[in-house]
């Protein structure tokens, strides 16, 4: 079989030896016309990269998922709890890392499902995180947006921890500031002390930090939080704090100060079933895009964190099992929320298998089985939900496993 010319993004990545081996039949990459009946959900940090360093096993693993023209032959999406960027930027980054052309529609960020929360899109929201937070919020549909930095400039006396940044004179326009109606937490901010102080102020004052209320209003204004990872794996040898650590600080401070629990209107990102359901919709769409018209029977979710990736995949597998048994009440709620076309689910998968890789947060040497890193609102967790169906060394071994199970080459 002749090998067609590859796109430039691939030709610079794939070695001539690898192409030659395909021509000679030493590998079946690019050479199979069998249509897959499965889809793959990839985590990114700890599976494909650590920080910005591509893991050695990743590029060749993804070459096995593409055709000779560089297009995907296996329905594939990337599900990350990162929330500090835009989908098209992450797709471009993945393409450069892997030497495979990844489209924006294959990327699910932690905040992606917020598109469906249309009841909040016209409210005045306070957003927290890093990167282009205003642009992210606008792309999701939010119309009235204030950042933490803008709030700090409007209410300068609120930020008092860093004495070098303290401003003791209040802004004369703060009384005209429109009340915050909801809080959207995209990811961990840079100055935690500032963010924690301002967020607690907003929650305790019903969105009006210029006013000291006579009584605490509770429940507080809605909080939509993305990315519950307590830790994530970067270049350092040990895991780093994630947005889940920031949320833990916020929950603890609010509880300590008010005596009441912080309430999340929605928790988005892994391990939320909503995020996996959204990814399921996206992988079905990708299957249609690459010409697969038969049903997808199985999903495989590859991740490095038992508290988010494995837990979330197993939780979603339970949901699919309920759906298969026609326990439809919860299913209907999720599908209505996502705006999914019911006819799409004629092709929907019936299972979601969790595959744990040992290149990220999880390490058998560090796993003492005592610490519980699961998000507060998901506790208590059945221990079996944190047990991966399969454990492999790296993402390349994960592809080997999937292809072997599916008898696919």
Automatic annotation (TrEMBL):
<dbReference type="Pfam" id="PF13344">
    <property type="entry name" value="Hydrolase_6"/>
</dbReference>
<dbReference type="InterPro" id="IPR050324">
    <property type="entry name" value="CDP-alcohol_PTase-I"/>
</dbReference>
<dbReference type="GO" id="GO:0046474">
    <property type="term" value="P:glycerophospholipid biosynthetic process"/>
</dbReference>
<dbReference type="InterPro" id="IPR036412">
    <property type="entry name" value="HAD-like_sf"/>
</dbReference>
<dbReference type="InterPro" id="IPR006353">
    <property type="entry name" value="HAD-SF_hydro_IIA_CECR5"/>
</dbReference>
<keyword id="KW-0732">Signal</keyword>
<dbReference type="InterPro" id="IPR023214">
    <property type="entry name" value="HAD_sf"/>
</dbReference>
<dbReference type="InterPro" id="IPR006357">
    <property type="entry name" value="HAD-SF_hydro_IIA"/>
</dbReference>
<dbReference type="GO" id="GO:0005739">
    <property type="term" value="C:mitochondrion"/>
</dbReference>
<protein>
    <recommendedName>
        <fullName>Haloacid dehalogenase-like hydrolase domain-containing 5</fullName>
    </recommendedName>
</protein>
């Amino acid at each position: 079989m002749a090998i067609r010319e590859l796109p430039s993004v691939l030709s610079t990545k794939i070695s001539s030896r690898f192409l030659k081996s395909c021509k000679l039949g030493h590998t079946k990459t690019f050479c199979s016309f069998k249509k897959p009946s499965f889809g793959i959900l990839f985590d990114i940090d700890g599976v494909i990269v650590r920080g910005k360093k591509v893991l050695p096993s990743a590029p060749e693993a993804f070459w096995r998922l593409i055709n000779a023209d560089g297009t995907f032959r296996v329905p594939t999406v990337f599900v990350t709890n990162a929330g500090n960027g835009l989908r098209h930027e992450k797709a471009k980054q993945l393409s450069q890392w892997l030497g495979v052309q990844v489209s924006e529609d294959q990327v699910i960020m932690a905040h992606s499902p917020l598109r469906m929360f249309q009841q909040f899109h016209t409210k005045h929201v306070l957003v927290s995180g890093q990167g282009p937070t205003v642009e992210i919020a606008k792309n999701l549909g939010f119309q009235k947006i204030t950042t933490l930095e803008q709030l700090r400039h409007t209410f300068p006396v609120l930020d008092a921890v860093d004495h070098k940044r303290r401003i003791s004179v209040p802004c004369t326009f703060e009384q005209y500031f429109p009340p915050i109606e909801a809080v959207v937490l995209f990811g961990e901010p840079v100055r935690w002390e500032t963010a924690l102080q301002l967020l607690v102020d907003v929650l305790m004052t019903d969105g009006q930090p210029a006013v000291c209320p006579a009584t605490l209003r509770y429940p507080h204004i809605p909080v939509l939080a993305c990315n519950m990872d307590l830790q994530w794996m970067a270049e350092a040898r040990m895991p780093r704090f994630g947005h889940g650590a920031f949320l833990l600080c916020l929950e603890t401070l609010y509880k300590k100060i008010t005596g009441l629990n912080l309430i999340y209107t929605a928790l988005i990102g892994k391990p939320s079933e909503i995020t996996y359901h959204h990814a399921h919709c996206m992988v079905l769409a990708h299957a249609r895009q690459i010409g697969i018209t038969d049903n997808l029977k199985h999903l495989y979710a590859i991740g490095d964190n038992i508290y988010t990736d494995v837990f979330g995949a197993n939780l979603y597998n339970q949901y699919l099992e309920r759906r298969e048994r026609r326990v439809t009440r919860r299913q209907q709620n999720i599908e209505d929320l996502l705006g999914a076309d019911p006819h799409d689910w004629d092709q929907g998968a019936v299972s979601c298998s969790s595959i744990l890789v040992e290149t990220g947060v999880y390490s058998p040497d560090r796993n003492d089985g005592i610490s519980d890193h699961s998000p507060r609102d998901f506790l208590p967790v059945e221990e079996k939900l944190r047990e991966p169906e399969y454990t492999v060394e790296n993402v390349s071994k994960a592809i080997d496993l999937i292809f072997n199970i599916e008898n696919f080459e």
